[in-house]
Amino acid sequence: MLVHICCAVDSHYFLQKLREDYPDERLIGFFYDPNIHPYSEYRLRLLEVERSCRQLGIELIEGPYDAKAWFDAVRGLENEPEKGRRCAVCFDRRFEVSAAKAAELGEKSFTSTLLTSPKKSLPQLRTEGERLGEKYGITFCAPDYRKASGTQEQNRLAKEAKLYRQDYCGCLYGLTIQRSEQKKFADELQVPISGQIQPESIEERLALYKQRLDLEEEGHDYHIVKERFLNWRLEWGLLRVGKVPVPAHILPYSTLKRAFTRGRIDGKIGPLAWLNRDEVKFTTLNEYNRLTGRNYPSVTALIFDPPPFSEEVTFRKSLLPSPYDLSTLLVVETLPKQKIELSMKAHCFEDVRERMILIN
After folding, report:
1. For the purposes of burial, counting CB atoms within 10 Å of the CB of 297, is it exposed (0-12), middle (13-18) or buried (19 or more)?
2. What is the Cα–Cα distance from 40 to 46, expressed in whole angstroms?
3. Residue of 20, 45, 69, 150 with fewest CB within 10 Å of its CB?
């Protein structure tokens, strides 16, 4: 039996139930989910499915990440709600490819872990699965593992296995709508041009769960705990000196009351200078290199290849020792002598991140 897999939280429970109810079947996992965006989130969910299948002794096949075809399929349905027409098209496409893969492998049946997801419509999934089963001459198995406290058991097993739990279904449109309803900034879609790993970004989570695999291979025990913290994302920023754009590196936790300010350098003490309004502060690249032990040849080089986020926070604290200071702090080649114009949009917001604690 080919089992289409959407995520490890669903599959870890679903595969064990299938093994109990179909003891004579050879189960093959099929991870086909081009709906998952961004790609780093796709890699993270695949990483967890690989770990789960390895623990359960299930063969796993990764399907193609044909995201463009998925976007083409749902064009015009971007604003549909959860369980709406976009979801139906999404299920249809993944089921179609799964059924075709099952037939290609010579399997007589196929199913999907989507059946156990509490956010999916079971009748909708069954109808489409049965239609495609008839088309490809195979059986669609649609057990209801949600009943009899199945969802609670699924959550218990996921917690026991320390599985990564995503907090959105997967696609770009569902995520955008969900964050809008929650009145939350969709930071999952923000990736800096530098490639720097941001706090509680999908890239940070991916690194953490890869580290978890290394710890398990080495026989170490650990806990993954959550912590509440103040997060930050920069959407965009532009510094003009005398109407001319100049390179400027914006340090983490820089905020501006409005999206625009202007003024002149009003004073300087040591490595820190400040504008005559809106709490904007400056330091030079030479001071940055001196205090961080780096050797950047230019601000542009710093912009596109900054040090780790934590190191930049440490540098910020060396100039602005208060942990509550959210003033804008910029690194420039030389302190401007002409009139300055700064346009910037940044977000500071409460967030929750995961942290690894090694036990032995």
Report:
1. exposed
2. 10
3. 20
Question: pLDDT tens digit string along 328-344?
Answer: 999 999 999 999 999 99
φ, ψ at 244 (rounded to 5°): -105, 125
CA distance 52 to 47: 9
Strand order across the 59-62 sheet: 59-62, 28-31, 2-5, 109-112, 139-140
Where do the structural domains in the chain lie, given as residue ranges? 2-183, 231-350
Provide the b/e sequence for 53-66 (b: ≥16 CB within 10 Å). beebebebeebebe
Length of the chain: 360
Any idea which residue has 């081009």 for tokens?
34
Of 3.40.50.2000, 3.40.50.620, 3.40.50.1000, 3.90.180.10, the CATH number of 2-183 is 3.40.50.620
Task: Tell which residue, 258, 277, 251, 248, has the closest CA to residue 336.
Answer: 248
Rounded to 5 degrees, what angle do the CA atoms 88, 91, 96 make? 125
pTM of this prediction?
0.91
Q: Which two tokens stand for residue 93?
A: 């496409």
Residue 138 has pLDDT above 80, yes or no: yes
Strand spans (E) along 26-147: 28-31, 59-62, 109-112, 139-140
pLDDT single digits (tens) 216-230: 999 999 999 999 999
